[in-house]
Amino acid sequence: MKKIITHNGSFHADEIFACAILSILNNNKVEIIRSRDPEVWEMGDYVVDVGGVHNEKKNRFDHHQVGGGGKRENGIPYSSMGLVWKLYGKKVSGSAEVAKLVDEKLVQPIDAVDSGVSLFSLINPEVFPYSINNVLGALRPTWKEEAGDKESIDEGFAVALNLAKDILLREIKIARDQIEANKFVLKAYNKAKDKRVIVIEGHYPCDEILLKFSEPLFVVKPDHQDETKWKVKTVRKGSDSFEARKFLPVKWSGKKGEEFAKITGVKDSIFCHVNCFVAVAGSKAGALKLAELALNN
Questions:
Q1: pLDDT grade for 150, boundaries at 50, 70 and 90
Q2: Domain boundaries, the chain
Q3: Helix (H, G, I), strand (E, B) or coil at 66
Q4: List of residues 6+ apart from 246 with CB closer than 8 A
Q5: How far apart are CA 176 and CA 204, in angstroms?
Q6: Least packed by Cβ within 10 Å: which of 257, 261, 289, 291?
Q7: Please, what is the average pLDDT of the chain?
Q8: Is a pLDDT exceeding 60 seen at residue 158?
Q9: pTM tops 0.85, yes or no
């Protein structure tokens, strides 16, 4: 059984996920020891977020020493999670492509927070984003609980570790499926005669691919909850934007049933969202007609 050593005391997302990665790597046949004793460190097969050494050959993954653990090309420093993922992400996830997506979505934000790098600007100084760091931090005992018998930091760490493993495995699955979906979406784009409207025959996530191209304005696809229905959905201006490249007509806003059908002239029109980013029809032909009307609006 492999020994993973990390520091004791308060815990954070970076070493929790570093331990989660190494646990999955070793099929959960690991013992995790939390200590700041240098003699204990020497017992470890892996040492993360403590020890003042980054040495991949010796499986030492700290970033608190002078010079840290290095930075990515985009400037995001590596924390203990990033250092472990850089070495073992491909093996744990099954491919370099999956590892890259997980790094971009999950690893880099955690590394950034742990390294004091801000990734966003606050619109309201009184409202702060609630991140995975906050979720795991909520499992730490408060100042009142710490002195009691009911909760302990180690118990909180164990709960956080299991949650981190579940999240990591889900993100790996999501990334794998995303890569597969991208192939279908790209095929649909290449097949489209009018590339302003892309018809997709399944529930594939499509933003990642379509945002690479300038033409797509709408996507026509089966409704996720009822495949007998089809919807026309707007394409966003960017992955971080709620603005559409072209919204559905304002006069459709919030309309449904007979009223919506009367306005559009499409008999099986069912519903248009009040914010005009998605509308539903009772058939593929109906959704395509709604898309055509929206294009010419």
A1: very low
A2: 2-176, 192-296
A3: coil
A4: 217, 218, 234, 294, 295
A5: 12
A6: 257
A7: 93
A8: yes
A9: yes
